[in-house]
Structure formats: C-alpha cells, structure tokens
Design brief:
Chain lengths: ~525, ~325
C-alpha cells in the first residue's frame, strides 16, 4: 500500500483503536481467539431487512440484508478494517494519488479469477464502477461515481480515477459495499464475482447459499466450506433462533437485549462503535428553525448523557450535533461540547418569541428507539420550559412524506466510510440529500478545502472547522453516535470487531469453527 | 341429472357461486383502492433513503404509477382474470410464479394444522359436552379460553420460548424447500402447526360443545330420555347426527380464520409462505404482490365459506329435499 499519508495515518489509527477497544470487547465471558484457523463446517448467518425484491446485483445493495451479501461473492478494490476503519487492500494491491491530487491510481492484484473462470482485468473494474453512474442506476453511490471526472484503464492491471478537484480522501469511498467488482458485461444478477464464496442458490427474501471458492485470491481466508445466509425479518424470530443455536452469526441484534444475550454461555456478543446516528432534523429554511437561536436552544435543551443511558447504553457515544464519530480519525476534540443547560436554553427560546408547542414527528420507520428518543427529548425540553409535542407517525411512508419535508422530525443516517462522506452527503448545501436544507458557505468551503488538502494535519484542521460550524449552526441535533451489535455462537472464532457491522461486511470470510 | 337440475342443491350452489364471485369482485376493488391509498409508493420505497426527485419521477414512469387510478384498475382486472397478476415491482419477476410456491407452502402449513385440529378439537368438544358441568368440562373450557384470549403471535413466541429456547428440541425458524425430506418438513412444521392448532382449537371446541348441548336440550331428546334410552345411545345416535351440520360449518369457518392467522404465524417462524411474502411486500410497497395476495386470501376465505354452507346442507337431509311448491 502506498497511500501518501500512510505513516501518520497509521499511528493515528492506533490511538483511536486503543480508545475504542473497550467498547468492542465481547461483553460476556472470556474473549479468546482459540488457536489457528481451521477449515471446514457449514456456517449459518442471519440478518433482517430482506425483501423478495433483493437482487445479487451489487449496484442494488442498500438494505441490512443485501449489504452483508457484498462480503460473500464479491470484493471491492479496498476494504476498511477494525475499529479505526483502517483502509486495506482488496482487489487493488496498492494505490497512490497524482501530484495534484486530482487522480488516483489503483494497481490491481494479479491472477485473480472470477467464479466463471475469467481473469480479473482493469476493464472489469472500470465497467463495475461506471455502471453505478448509468442512467437507470438506483445505486446509493450514484452521485459519488457520476461526480467523478473519469474512470479509465491503463493497461490490464491499472485503473486511474480522475476527479474534477483534488481529493485526498477518495479511496475509502471505494470500500462501500455496493462497489463489488463483477465481470465486464455482467448484470450482476448471477452473483459471479471474485469473492470467497460462490453462490449456489439465491431465493430472494428467504436464503442465499454459497460454497467456498477454491481459487480465492486470499489464501488466509474463506475457512468454512459452505455458507447459508438466512433472511429473518422478524426481530424476535432472529433473536430466538440465535439463542437456540440455529444461527452461527447474527447481525444487527437489538441493542437493548444485547446485555441479556451476552450472559448466555453459548453466545459471543460484539458491539461495534459505529458511525451512524439517529437525529432530530430542524429545517433551517422554515420558521421557527430559520432562527439560529431556536436551533441552539434545542441543542442545549437535551440531556445527552441521560438519553444514552436510557436508549443506547452499550454502543452509544456522546454526540455534538455534527456527524463525525469520536472513533473517526478526523474527529475534533476541540469543538465545544453542547451540554444540557435548561436555563440558557429557555433564554434563547424566549428570545425567538415563538409561542405554542414545537411539533416533533417521529416513527418506528426510523427505529423503535426513534420513538423513545423523541419522548425523552420532550421530557428534557419541558423541564427547561420549552414545550415539545411528540407526534408519532405511521411507519408506512414516513421516509417519503416526513423526512426532509417537515420542519421538525426524527431521521437517521447509516455508516459512511469517511468523515468526508457523511459531511458531504448530509450537510453540504449542494447535496440533494441535505435534509435540513442548511446552507452555510463557510462550512461548504471548509469541507471542500479539507478533501483537497494533501497534508494530514492541515486537512484535520479544515475538518475540525467544518465540525465546529456544523455543531454551532447546523439544523441537525445528534444526541449520540450509535453503533451496531453483532453476535456469534461461542464456537466461532476469527470475528474481528470493527466500527462497521459484520467486521466491515467481511466477517463471513474471516471466521472459522474452533 | 334432471333430479339435480331441479334440486335445491343446484340452485343453492349457483346462487352461492354468483354471490361469491360478486364478493370477490368487490374485494378486488377494495384491495386495489387500499393499496393505491397507502402513503408513499413503490418508487419511493425502492429508492429508499437515497431517493432524489428525479430518480423517483423516472422510476414512477417506468412502473406506470403516473397513470390514472381507474385505468390502472381496469388493466389490472383484465390481466388478473387471465391469471396474470403483473410483475413484481422490486425484482421484475412474474407475480404468479413468485406466488405459486409460496401458496403451496402456506396451504401445506394450513392443511397440516387443519388435519390435526379438526378431529382433535371436535373430539374434545364432544367430551366437554358429554361431561357438562363436571371437572373435565371446566378444565377443557378454561384451557381453551386461555388460548382464545391470547393473540396468535404471542402463542407463537411462547411456543418458541418453550420448545426452541428452553428445551432446545425443535427449531424456531421453519426453513423448508420443496426438496427437503419428509422428516425435515415435519421438524420444520412442528412449531408453526402446534401454534395454529392452539390458536384454532378454542372456537371449534366451544362451538361443538354448544351445538351438541343445543340439540340435547330439544324436545325429542327429552322424549328419548323419558323413554329410557341409554344416555350414550341418545348422544351418538340421536343428538350427534343432528349437531353435525353446525359442527361442520364451524370447522370450515375456523379453518378459514386460520388462513388469516397463517399470515402472522409465518412471520413469527420465518416460514416461506404467502403470508410472509405479503407482509414483506407491504413493507417494500410491492403493490402487485400485495394485490394478488389480498385477492387470493379473500378467494380462499370465500371458497371455504361456500364449502362450509354446502357441506352443512348436504349433511342435513332436510335441506337436500326439494322444497314444497318448487
């Protein structure tokens, strides 16, 4: 790997990895990676969020179920690993930026074959990436790929990706789970990739079955012989099947039952600190939230520690109304932390001169915790004399008709591989996905300057500035950054705790039966 | 045939078939309207959190969601009458081919439960009736009321908790496929079938008991008793045959209601049947699947109702005879 910021970045990651270590240790019993990896066995994995409409085309991946498929028949160019989300090689064995930072050069691993016997070349990579930007693409990285200046092959083993402006944080984007590489010309529906397991049967919304790819380019992976990946949408069914030993690896378990599960001797529970969050959106272009004092009043009217204690005691990390997680290398410790200050909140609220309750819309569609969070927020704000009225909306259609549409509502954001990705997608004034319609020229300038800055320390300073502006002026209240909870049966070894669920979606190729 | 041509059975069958078809027609309108009125549409649900106005518009056009409702209904009805329920919005497959294996799975689950629950519950109901007011009757009554008052999904979770989590003898996930062996099917079906049996038994037991006791309190039974005919002979030779007709329709109705419970039970046990397909399709706004499932469930319900009335009529000789004046 020849990334230009390798050394300083590595040392930084060590610190964040150490600080995050406590959170990721299994909560019950001893954590022992029992001896050397062993081949063999049939691994049963389960997740919710599946649908009969699921497809093996990586371009369609987005749900809790399909994101995990990405680690079965596919590989991306790069992967993120561990608690610090360290970037590491996958199909690209090394990468480096051009001098001006406007293009990135990826050198591919050689002698990699697809499940159909074809050898991997740069043409396959160019094809696989470009189809995300196609007209009919519904890929959730479409805007990222279509925003590039060019993707081209340079010989059979080199791919060059060009950007309109310098971007020194780009490679991590390619670790996204929809960016699996398929053979040129394929529509991806047959599941042919380069990955550790070949799909033998796929019944959408029911099960995916796969067997080991004997030609897998990683010799120290793909330990189990076969994988059965079940779709279990009912959380109680998932929980009971996991408890009764029918499932070896379960992902996205209910955080509130995790402490109970971790006491069972036949299970190991992993809490991943994570980068996603549930947030309160205030439309900054709508009254009364167009007034920054109103936004600040509400940010000070929430007791974050109490909320974490009651809603996310195992994996919640204190939030500060900007989206960068404390476990992120770009996290700034210098942004003043918003603390619960009922008196100051009330003064600010009164200064706006708004009368009547603020209607806060929430729904199970976000998460069962979203409803609890709204009610707890109401309680905190009422203590400060700020009247909030919680309106519980039906789950059906909540994402379409409420999120990003109404003045004050609960929303959520999933994991993104970098601070840049979440800051750009959710907060840049030019993003179509800026739910609060927040416009701040200084913030935009800081983010754009950061990604174009080759020096790590200077880049961190720009991101710190972006975090500060977002925290002070932004329309999003982020009480805490959430994590996810994964679990394995106690006979599974090799599960590496990560900031993302399922060890950055690669858990299946890494685990073995002890 | 001429006897049949004039028989009340024939006119009954024709009348009921006609009214059944009319019901299904109106149900199809309700199902179509209901699904059209759901907030949010498939385009939004398919694109999820990453939807932008342009992609939503483009997808709506592709899916034909921009056409007027009446036109969409007529086109859908025309195709449905030819057995074509359209293609799934989310994966482009034929709804009929998606539905067929799921329907078979649901029917296997429901009929396995029916085959067990009908004789069992009728038998228990008869025992309760024979021992009216005694300990056996009280115990049967209270146990069946207990299950009657619990929602079916709760019974499902209880069954899972006891047999899968605590005892660990049966799987809580019913993963089956057509190629599974008979033993695998039986193991997978054990808990969902047990749950359905517990859900459906109460009505059959209570109504069987009531039907038999209703006949037992009629004048001709009292006559038989005063003549000194043994109690068992009265019960089995005189009372039971006359109570059979209501019992049969109760059983058919309970089986029909069980079809509704199958939707919930399949979700609890992750059983790959039509109910789970429908629940998932609602969540993902896959309207053609929801519509087809809705119409199919209603058709099964109407058909079982029809069958219940028909059987009740055939069993009761009085209703088979031509009415005077016909």
């Amino acid at each position: 790997m020849s990334s230009p910021f390798k050394i300083s970045r590595r040392s930084l990651l060590k610190i964040s990895a150490a600080s995050g270590l406590m959170a990721a240790l299994p909560m019950g019993g001893a954590w022992a990676q029992g001896g050397a990896p062993k081949r063999g066995g049939h691994l049963v994995v389960a997740s919710g969020g599946a649908s009969t409409g699921d497809s093996l085309d990586p371009r369609t991946f987005g749900s809790a179920y399909t994101s995990v498929i990405s680690g079965i028949p596919y590989n991306g160019l790069v992967e993120v690993h561990g608690l610090g989300m360290e970037l590491r090689p996958a199909l690209a064995k090394s990468w480096e930026a051009s001098a001006d930072g406007k293009s990135w050069i990826f050198d591919l691993e050689q002698d990699v074959t697809f499940h159909n016997g074809k050898t991997l070349t740069s043409a396959d990579v160019v094809y696989s990436l470009q189809r995300h930007a196609a007209e009919d693409s519904r890929s959730n990285v479409r805007s990222v790929i279509s925003g590039l200046a060019g993707i081209r092959a340079d010989g059979p083993n080199r791919v060059i990706i060009e950007m309109p402006e310098a971007n020194y944080v780009f490679p991590a984007i390619l670790s996204g789970f929809p960016l699996g590489i398929i053979p040129e010309g394929s529509d991806g529906r047959d599941g042919v990739g380069t990955g550790p397991y070949k799909v033998t049967r796929f019944a959408p919304g029911e099960v995916l079955e796969a067997e080991r790819n004997e030609n897998y380019f990683r010799k120290d992976a793909a330990w189990v012989d076969s994988v059965e990946y079940l779709a279990v949408n009912d959380p109680s069914a998932l929980n009971s099947a996991f408890q009764s030993g029918q499932i070896n690896v379960a992902t996205l378990l209910d955080e509130r039952t995790a402490p109970l599960l971790s006491q069972m001797p036949n299970l190991k529970i992993y809490s991943n600190p994570g980068r996603g969050f549930i947030c309160f959106n205030m439309r900054t272009d709508m009254a009364p939230f167009d007034n920054p004092n109103m936004r600040l009043a509400l940010k000070l009217a929430i007791d974050r520690e109490d909320m974490i204690r009651r809603v996310s005691p195992t994996v919640g990390a204190l939030g500060n109304d900007h989206p960068v997680a404390p476990s992120d290398p770009m996290y700034s410790k210098d942004v003043p932390q918003h603390v619960y200050d009922p008196k100051r909140a009330k003064e600010l609220f009164d200064s706006v001169g708004y009368s009547g309750p603020l209607v806060l819309q929430t729904s199970e569609a976000i998460s069962s915790r979203a409803v609890d969070m709204a009610v707890i927020f109401q309680e905190h704000a009422n203590k400060a004399g700020i009247p909030i009225e919680v309106k519980r909306e039906p789950a059906d259609g909540y994402w379409e008709t409420i999120v990003g549409q109404t003045p004050f509502h609960v929303s959520a954001r999933s994991d993104r591989p970098t601070a840049d990705a979440i800051l750009s997608v959710a907060f840049l004034s030019t993003s179509g996905n800026n739910e609060c319609k927040w416009v701040n020229k200084d913030f935009d300038a800081a983010v754009l300057a950061a990604r174009a800055e080759p020096d790590l320390e200077k880049r961190k300073a720009f991101y710190a500035e972006a975090q500060r502006i977002c925290s002070e002026d932004g329309g999003t209240i982020i009480p805490f950054i959430s994590g996810t909870v994964d679990g394995t049966s106690s006979d599974i070894d090799g599960f590496v705790p990560s900031a993302q669920q399922m060890a950055g979606y690669r858990a299946i190729e890494n685990v073995w039966f002890s | 045939m001429s006897a049949f041509a004039n028989s009340p059975v024939r006119s009954f069958v024709l009348a009921r078939l006609a009214s059944g078809l009319v019901s299904i027609f109106f149900i199809s309108i309700l199902v179509f309207l209901g699904t059209a009125l759901l907030p949010g549409d498939a385009a939004n649900a398919l694109l999820g959190q990453n939807a932008t106005p342009e992609t939503v518009l483009a997808l709506r056009e592709v899916l034909g969601l921009d056409r007027p409702l009446v036109l969409r209904y007529l086109a859908w009805l025309g195709n449905a009458l030819q057995g074509d329920f359209g293609t799934s919005l989310s994966n482009g497959q034929q709804v009929t081919s998606l539905l067929a294996p799921r329907l078979v799975n649901s029917l296997i689950l429901a009929s396995s439960a029916a085959v067990i629950v009908v004789p069992l519950a009728v038998g228990i109901g008869l025992v309760a009736a024979m021992h009216r007011g005694k300990v056996a009757d009280t115990v049967i009554g209270s146990v069946s009321s207990l299950f009657l008052s619990m929602p079916s999904f709760l019974i499902g979770y209880l069954v899972v908790f006891i047999f899968a989590v605590q005892l660990g003898i049966l799987p809580s996930l019913s993963m089956v496929r057509a190629s599974s062996s008979l033993t695998a099917w039986m193991i997978a079906l054990a808990l969902p079938v047990l749950t359905l049996v517990l859900v459906a038994q109460a009505h059959i037991i209570k109504l069987t008991r009531a039907a038999v006791l209703g006949v037992m309190s009629t004048d001709y039974i009292m006559m038989a008793q005063t003549k000194g005919i043994p109690r068992n002979t009265i019960f089995f030779r005189h009372a039971l045959p006359n109570a059979l007709s209501p019992i049969v329709s109760i059983c058919m109705m309970s089986v029909a209601y069980m079809i509704v419970d199958v939707v919930v039970i399949e979700a609890v046990f992750n059983y790959p049947g039509m109910g789970k397909l429908m629940v998932d399709a609602v969540a993902y706004r896959d309207i053609p699947i929801v519509q087809a499932c809705g119409v199919l469930f209603s058709t099964i319900f109407v058909a079982l109702n029809f069958l219940a009335d028909l059987l009740a009529m055939l069993i009761n000789p009085r209703q088979r005879l031509p009415r005077k004046g016909n």
